[in-house]
Write a structure and sequence with these properties.
- This protein is of the alpha/beta class and about 350 residues long.
- It contains ten helices and 13 strands.
- It is globular, with a radius of gyration of 23 Å.
Length: about 350
């Protein structure tokens, strides 16, 4: 039996070795195989333990796209930011500035925690919990990311970051708060899930300034679909006849006049075949959704949407088909489809 000699890795140049490490550290967000719970950052985290040089080399790749689907992920990320703050004060070799390294960041449905109970009946002091989110640490990273995606239930995180950033740039005796879009780099905003109230973004100076600076807006809704709410045919969207129906009703509730610099708006139109075989198909394969992009988005609160076919014929919009992974919950009378928007967004499919 012929013995294969190990690859002479040590004979490679340092530059080439670091390039290999960067490639190996690149997260894989596509959930292939049976292990959907695999951490996409596992390889990068392992490489960070090799040496300080390797850690500093692979961290930018790890931070390029950050996924924070649950509250525990957010608090863990904030703890990492607090640790980096301590490293910076100590001039530790492990210090690394996360802000500016994160290009894309995703927040799942993270509900705002209830107010903490006062200590010893005193309303001037409250319990400092490890679960608390320090917006002074999170804001520089979140608002430095050009591409931001978050669930409607997580808008409080965005507002908390905006408020924290603005308070750091105004004087305490300044009667007027004048935010500028130079305080953030975000220009691509994706909103996920069921529509919620837009306040306090539309009712505050900093929130209004943020919305006005957005140039690309995307909506990933709904997150779930039930059979009795869906049509009994397959809108294949293969010709204009199948596009002759209006946009979803919820689109009229968007405060379009707040988006002063909006250039494109995209929304998904799930396509599901309601047949006996559909349950088998949906449980095993991705589902096609149609991504509609409008190149001349509305800028008025009195916008009246037209049929989809009108936008396609006039060249004001186009549609592309995207495969999105689904999770199927079956019951004797109906089944519910949940769309994995997080994976599709992380893989860059929804552009």
């Amino acid at each position: 039996m012929q013995v294969t000699s190990p690859f002479p890795f040590a004979n490679l140049s340092t530059e080439l070795i670091l390039v290999i490490f960067v490639h190996a550290a690149r997260p894989t967000f596509d959930k292939t195989g049976d292990d959907d719970s695999k951490n996409p950052y596992a390889s990068a985290l392992s490489l960070c333990r090799v040496s300080k040089i390797v850690r500093r080399t692979v961290l930018p790749e790890l931070l390029r796209t950050v996924l924070l689907p649950e509250y525990s992920n957010v608090t863990a990320f904030v703890r990492a930011l607090r640790m980096q703050q301590a490293f910076a004060l100590q001039e530790n070799d492990l210090r690394f500035d996360y802000a500016g390294r994160v290009d894309r960041i995703w927040f799942g449905r993270i509900c705002e925690p209830p107010p903490q109970a006062p200590v010893q009946s005193s309303f001037t002091s409250s319990i400092t919990s490890d679960l608390a989110i320090d917006f002074s640490l999170l804001a520089p990273v979140l608002l430095a990311a050009p591409c931001l995606a978050l669930d409607f239930g997580s808008l409080w995180l965005l507002y908390g970051c905006l408020e924290s950033t603005l308070s750091c740039h105004v004087h305490t005796n300044d009667p007027e708060r004048t935010p500028s879009n130079s305080l953030w780099r975000t220009n691509d905003l994706t909103l996920v899930g069921e529509f919620n109230r837009w306040c306090p973004l539309t009712s505050t100076t900093e929130g209004s300034a943020f919305l006005a600076s957005i140039s690309r807006l995307s909506f990933l809704s709904p997150t779930k679909a039930e059979t009795h709410l869906l049509p009994t045919y397959d809108p294949c969207f293969n010709d204009l006849e199948n596009w002759k129906y209006p946009l979803p009703e919820w689109i009229t509730s968007v405060p379009w006049d707040s988006f002063k610099h909006l250039r494109t708006v995209s929304l998904v139109l799930p396509r599901i075949v309601l047949t006996v075989a559909a349950k088998t198909i949906l449980s095993e394969e991705d589902v096609d959704v149609e991504l509609l992009t409008l190149f001349d988005p509305p800028h008025s609160a009195h916008w009246e949407p037209k049929d989809i076919s009108t936008y396609i014929e006039s060249g004001e919009g186009h549609i592309v088909s995207v495969g999105v992974r689904t999770k199927l919950r079956d019951s004797p009378i109906q089944f519910t489809v949940s769309f994995d928007w997080e994976e599709a967004w992380a893989c860059g499919l929804l552009k």
